[in-house]
Write a structure and sequence with these properties.
Layout (H helix, E strand, L loop, with lengths): L16 E4 L2 H4 L4 E5 L11 H13 L4 E5 L4 H13 L3 E6 L10 H8 L3 E5 L1 H5 L4 H8 L7 E2 L7 H13 L6 E6 L3 H9 L5 E6 L6 H13 L6 E3 L10 E2 L1 H14 L5 H17 L7 E5 L21 E2 L30
Parallel strand pairs: 2-11, 3-4, 3-6, 4-5, 7-8, 7-11, 8-9
Antiparallel strand pairs: 1-2, 10-12
Helix pairs in contact: 2-7, 3-4, 7-8, 7-9, 8-9, 10-11
The structure holds pyridoxal-5'-phosphate.
Pyridoxal-5'-phosphate binds next to strand 7, helix 8 and helix 11.
């Protein structure tokens, strides 16, 4: 274990696997289990832990440079890891107009954890993977910085998610997971055993995520691994869109099972899995595991709602927004947006 081994932070691993009683599943002879990745660590919940663990080991204490939108949970997780393990962090934040404004709560937390925030215009942000632009951005970080991509999904992140699949060995026949950049699904599927399969629920529209998952598996393992499929029907209009039906579903699920549901990813996956169960897609006797990849932020001070999602529209990123990034539905998941910004 090196000094930058996240296991120093005493994660709750393997994450708990909890059976829940849900009549929509039970009446079709299905078992529903919740894989509580949200309980792994308070500052690095769910797939944040899985994706960062091997990357931070590889960084070996060098400064870490990463990217995100103004509401990025990934930025927050990297900043928290830097504080907890004692390495420097730099966050390249999309939107140079933010530079002169008070920080939102999410970026305030990043800064409080010691992250240096560098705001860049959208064109530069979009070009961040071009070698020339990347070199310029690296100049904003201390020499020798280790780069973690937007959303944290790279080959090491995918390898880190393999353990999630392994923890489910023998316990479930099909495993539902939300898909944003594809890294979690790519690793999960690789870790599952024979006869098990992963069902990915993209939270973005566009139908491009299958290609992303294949590319990530190629980068991580040199080729395809495991059984996985995507069901593209449950993005609900696009990234950070929370329809009244989805909001009602999530509230009902919270009431039934006493569990706060993150809206932008987890709610869409649970909605999709429940719909598939009700469509009769799974034979009786199937054991379904739903991966709870994250938790909502703390409730707003009025305590009125369990998440920052606004029914009927985009999630509300101010205050206690639950998801990574609020932004236009056509956007890609790593590069969050401004609440009022529907242009790119
Ligand atoms: C809570 C939550 N669930 C699921 C995902 C999707 O993971 P991935 O981007 O690896 O597909 C994310 C994004 O990081 C997330 O924040």
């Amino acid at each position: 274990m090196n000094a930058f081994d996240l296991s120093r932070l005493r994660p709750r691993l393997p994450s708990p696997l909890e059976p829940v009683e849900d009549e929509r599943f039970a009446r079709r002879g299905l078992t529903l289990l919740l894989k509580r990745e949200d309980l792994i660590h308070p500052d690095l919940p769910g797939n944040k832990w899985r994706k960062l663990a091997l990357n931070l080991e590889a960084a070996e204490g060098r400064p870490v440079l990463t990217f995100g939108g103004a509401y990025s949970n990934h930025l927050r997780a990297v900043a928290a890891a830097g504080r907890l393990l004692g390495f420097a962090t730099v966050g390249i934040v999309r939107g140079d107009e933010l530079a002169g404004r008070p920080l939102n709560p999410s970026l305030t937390r990043c800064a409080a954890d010691g992250m240096r925030l560098e705001f860049v215009d959208r064109a530069t942000y979009r070009a961040k993977n071009d070698p020339a632009t990347r070199a310029l951005l690296l100049e904003r970080a201390p020499a020798g910085a280790y780069v973690v991509p937007e959303g944290g999904s790279n080959a090491l992140a995918v390898q880190g998610c393999v353990e999630l699949g392994r923890e489910l060995a023998g316990a479930a026949d099909a495993v539902g997971v939300a898909v944003g950049t594809g890294g979690t699904l790519a690793g999960l599927a690789a870790g599952l055993g024979p006869g098990q399969r992963a069902l990915g629920f993209p939270v973005l529209k566009g139908g491009f995520l299958g290609e992303e998952v294949r590319a990530l598996q190629e980068a991580a393992f040199g080729g395809p691994r495991g059984e996985w499929t995507l069901d593209e029907r449950f993005h609900g209009g696009g990234y950070a869109r929370v329809s009244p039906a989805l909001e009602a579903f999530a509230r009902d699920f919270e009431a039934r099972h006493g569990l706060a549901i993150e809206r932008l990813y987890v709610a869409k996956m649970l909605y999709g899995l429940t719909a598939l169960a009700e469509e009769g897609v799974f034979p009786a006797g199937t054991r379904l595991a739903a991966v709870i990849t994250g938790a909502p932020d703390a409730p707003p001070s009025d305590g009125a709602r369990p998440s920052g999602a606004s029914p009927g529209g985009r999630a509300r990123p101010s205050g206690a927004s639950p998801g990574d990034r609020a932004r236009p539905s056509s956007a890609s998941p790593g590069d969050g947006g401004q609440p009022a910004d529907s242009s790119r």
